[in-house]
Amino acid sequence: MNTNVIEVNNVSFGYEKGNEVVKDVSFTIPEKSITMLIGPNGSGKTTLLKIMVGLLEPTRGDVKVYGDKPKNKRGNVGYVPQKLYFDQTFPITVMEFLQFSHKGAGDDVIEALESLGIRELSQSLIGTLSGGQLQRVLIVRSLLGKPKILFLDEPVSGIDVGGEQSFYELIKDIQKKHNVTVVMVSHEVHLVSRIADQVICINKEMLCSGEPEKALLPEVVEKLYGKDVSLYKHHC
Amino acid sequence: MFEILQLEFMQRAFIAGIILAPLLSVLGSFATLRKMSFFADGIAHASLLGVALAILVGITPFNGALVVGVLFGALVFLLERYTKLASDAVIGILFTTGLALGIIIISLQPGYQPDLISFLFGNILAITWGNVWVILLLSVIILSVVFFLFRQITLLSLSEELAWTSGISTGYLNLFFYILISISVVLGVKLLGIILVSALLITPPVTAKLITHSFRSYIFFSVVFSLLAFIGGLFSSYYFDFPSGASIVVSATTIFVIILILKTLFYAQGFLQKK
Questions:
Q1: Which positions in chain B have a beta carbon within 8 angstroms of at least one beta carbon in chain A?
Q2: Which residues contact B122 (CB under 8 A, 6 or more apart)?
Q3: Domains in chain B, please, with CATH?
Q4: What pTM, to 2 d.p., does this model score?
Q5: pLDDT at position A31 over 90
Q6: What is the ipTM of this complex?
Q7: Do B214 and A93 touch (CB under 8 A)?
Q8: What domains can be seen in chain A, in order of their start residue?
């Protein structure tokens, strides 16, 4: 296994005192791997991802990214939020948005847009994009910063039904092409073993961690999603 | 044709307005996107406390308004950030309190207060060469800063989360932006008055948004419309003997209505496609 680039040590977090949404979670993420954080709604996945990005500070424990605080490693990190909350009438084109996001970005913007198949969107206003198009633009934005780690929060949430698998394949291609470590939050339990090198199951507390085939046992899935959901059902 | 510019008070008003219109419209372009219109209105009203305090201690009311405007701007920022109070609630409480304290202090002063009326409604006759120089100096500094930080302020206006992950110190930049808006609003108060200043901050950018398809053209047209509004308002004020601040605001609204009607007609004719 490669060296660990992220270390999460006994991390807890609560938005309000006495109401922790993440409880005493510890794991490591190896370099150039794809790690999927899975768990039901409200299990603390997005919170944990935001702690690793540095957007939130843990109430207990600590996170190290390349041995340092996440906020000091922002230059090494690309972040794609689950949903971008912005004024839909914001009059900014995709090209302007990408150029403003990275000082000095020029011809590489077109190249990056082309690599994700969205070159024709360069002059579109970002408020007019579909959920899937916006996700791709946000991925381009992250890649333009030449990150070592790419954090994706439910990247297929805006994708049409049926398009999830090809989108995950795209992320796998990006990981190989750009040689990055990918950490993503996902609901697609059935795709974990096909996409991820490592899975982390969380429902406020950590329920599993490791290679998907070994860690994602039926009893863990049951514990995460309840009795009515099993790996078998997800595969159907 | 330009006989009005031969009058010295009109020269001062014209220079002040030609500088202030781009300043207010550029900052207003960001403020409207960030839903900060009420903030600008609040700062303008709260600055009356500064005018009152300045009258009380015998300093220039304009300087008092500037100091109080900046302090209120910073206070709104801190309360928004460190309490769970809604932004509009914080602004609502602070601006009415500032206004109320201003009225109480002024009521304690004997006699008629011409400074108060000129701050409430704006008065081009009250603009001195000293005011023009302060407006010029501060406007050049603020516009230079905005130009220098244009990329960062744009990203911050779009999404604070994305701006932060792009390496921007969003906390400091936000505070800085609040202060820049506060100063600009108070500068504009001299020309348009406390009650009307936010119109020049809001109406030109909103008008520009109707017709622009990129961020750079949005800023450009905001400036163009604010200059047209100011010049149109100043001329109509002179020739029809209307109050200057009100004329400028009505001029800005007229431009907005014309653009809105033209846009609607062009859509109806199929010349334009909906964004």
A1: 33, 35, 151, 154-155, 157-159, 161-162, 164-167, 209, 212-218, 275
A2: B189, B190, B191, B192, B193, B196, B197, B243, B244, B245
A3: 3-195 (1.10.3470.10)
A4: 0.87
A5: yes
A6: 0.85
A7: yes
A8: 4-86+147-235 (3.40.50.300)
